[in-house]
Amino acid sequence: MSxxxxxxxxxxxxxxxxxxxxxxxxxxxxxxxxxRIIDLDGRxxxxxxxxxTHPDGxxxxxxxxxxxxxxxxxxxxEMLRAHGPKKLIIAYATxxxxxxxxxxxxxxxxxxxxxxxPKRIIEACESFAS
Length: 130
Prior knowledge:
By secondary structure, the protein is α/β, with parallel strands linked by helices. It has helices at residues 13-24, 70-83, 118-128, and strands spanning 30-33, 38-39, 45-46, 50-53, 59-65, 88-93, 109-112.
């Protein structure tokens, strides 16, 4: 516990836009910040950015990835699939690839070009969180 005053959590303009766009959709899915710390079987931790919940009990976690290189991103996805939560959606910024390689299609992984599209995240929730 820090002795300094709580000033809230930093949020990027893209995330503010995502949350605002999400709240305008007519969906039963609810979006909120995640505070969960998930142990990856001693290989690291995951602190997902968001949790999505549905009134029928379904839920999914959402991890946002901004800067990435193909090899490290693929190995992180492999580790998350092997040791992370089963209902995790990974959304990555396609423009933030710091290498020259493109990324192959991966299950539960959604690309976005700077603007995170809530409809695509909900579609992933519908197929991935059931």
